[in-house]
Amino acid sequence: NAVLVDGVVLNGPTTDAKAGEKFVEEACRLIMEEVVLKATDVNEKVCEWRPPEQLKQLLDLEMRDSGEPPHKLLELCRDVIHYSVKTNHPRFFNQLYAGLDYYSLVARFMTEALNPSVYTYEVSPVFLLVEEAVLKKMIEFIGWKEGDGIFNPGGSVSNMYAMNLARYKYCPDIKEKGLSGSPRLILFTSAEGAAPFLVCATSGTTVLGAFDPLDEIADICERHSLWLHVDASWGGSALMSRKHRKLLHGIHRADSVAWNPHKMLMAGIQCCALLVKDKSDLLKKCYSAKASYLFQQDKFYDVSYDTGDKSIQCSRRPDAFKFWMTWKALGTLGLEERVNRALALSRYLVDEIKKREGFKLLMEPEYANICFWYIPPSLREMEEGPEFWAKLNLVAPAIKERMMKKGSLMLGYQPHRGKVNFFRQVVISPQVSREDMDFLLDEIDLLGKD
Ligand code: ABU
Fold first, then answer.
1. How far is CA 161 from CA 310, 322, 383, in A?
2. Is ligand 1 within 6 A of the CB of residue 414?
3. In the chain, pLDDT over 90 holds for what percent of residues?
4. Measured between alpha carbons, how far is 89 from 99 in angstroms, rounded to an integer?
5. Fewest beta carbons within 10 Å, which of 38, 40, 243, 326?
6. 338 CA to middle of ligand 1, Å?
7. Which of 371, 362, 344 is CA-nearest to residue 206?
8. pLDDT tens for residues 153-211?
9. How far is residue 196's CA from residue 183's CA, in Å, rounded to a whole number?
10. What is the rounded CA–CA span in Å between residue 126 and residue 228?
11. ipTM of the shown complex
12. Helices within 197-273 (DSSP H only)
């Protein structure tokens, strides 16, 4: 008895479940072979570089009226993997994240498969409790007795949250009165009659990996009743290490902290927490929009677990789960060892750079950012004047082009604060060894020959 509405048969599902299940199985096998095994193999390329116009020709990007058959989709998946950068590869040093953590990868598979949205307990009971447990533990490592927090998409978003919180604390009626009804605010002290409310310090800057003196900054903030936010998106992971946590000495005095476990702790993009010392529901007061279709107050369970109302987002991914899985698998000591090893490898690289002709450190690193110039043979005898620096500025981009076209290595370069283009090498992954550090220097030397 076919039920037809508007010419559409409504009996039974239209999805071919058997074909779908087979596709998932084959795609999982492909991911296992081409990503988990091959992309981490040091003998494979880090990237298969193609310029955009050429890549458009190589990939079938067109979306057509009719769907493609499974074998065609699997070919497309293979192409996507082939031409994507292998951030899991031991010679990917390009960003502040790298490597493959097997446990967070499984967590990512699970969350993609379960497809939860972490706004209400009714939709995400487990993931909300996991988030609560992870935040509690991170708060403990900061050195607060209690606090609050929320995972969100990116360190910059965490910083924005903190700024809004500090403003809300300073102007609790800002949601009603708006900006025009509030005093003119300023982030740093000012003699202009504006109201200073926030100091943002950094633990682990993006390029140099530098750490602000938190204790001294906290003294000033305390004296002037200023909110102290610490952007520890990159450097926060040093808190896991008894040896290196001194880099963040004084962080317990902060009002809020941004910390991204997807960086040094390899929880997978993205896994970013904003942690807040205040326990008086400031996050909720500041961000709650009380959407009546999600956050009904007359639900049959404890609605304080509907923590999505503390978030500026609506749909939200269960990012804490990835970190939780890794933490469960490695334990606190395993995470500590990961940080210690990355920083020991960084130390090794620094020592090698100092020994090698043609390599010049920009500065002694505080963390895992090793910033250096490669000076090709033709410049080695030249005096370090304007012409030398102008020529040196061209070296890192030229070497970067060569390494990407060869696919042997990826690391970043940039000019910074008046310094001409230099390389920034970031050491993170436990898949990386001393041999990879040696390879990096040999390869730059090889590619950088005039
Ligand atoms: N949050 C900025 C990270 C960019 C980088 O990986 O260099």
1. 10, 22, 48
2. no
3. 91
4. 6
5. 243
6. 20
7. 371
8. 999 999 999 999 999 999 999 999 998 998 889 877 667 988 889 999 999 999 999 99
9. 10
10. 32
11. 0.94
12. 214-223
In this structure, are residues 196 and 189 in contact, taking their beta carbons and an 8 Å threshold? yes
User: What residues have CB less than 8 Å from 80, skipping those under 6 apart?
Assistant: 59
- Choose one of 206, 262, 413 to mutate for the ligand 1 pocket test, by most ligand atoms within 8 angstroms of C-beta: 206
What single-letter amino acid sits at 182? S
For residue 59 the two structure tokens come to 């990939």
Taking CA atoms only, the protein residue closest to ligand 1 atom 3 is 96
pLDDT tens-digit profile of 340-363?
999 999 999 999 999 999 999 999
Mean pLDDT of the chain: 95
Structure tokens at 363: 């500065």
Amino acid (1-letter code) at residue 398:
A
268 C-beta closer than 6 A to ligand 1 = no
Locus of tokens 């972490």 = 118
Q: Which tens digit of pLDDT belongs to each residue from 2-34? A: 888 998 888 888 778 999 999 999 999 999 999
Where are the extended beta strands (E) located within 153-261? 185-186, 195-196, 198-202, 227-231, 256-259
CATH code, 107-323:
3.40.640.10
Q: Which residues, including other chains, have CB under 8 Å from residue 411's CB and lie 6 or more apart?
A: 93, 94, 400, 403, 423, 424, 425, 426, 440
Residue 270 tokens, joined:
């993205």
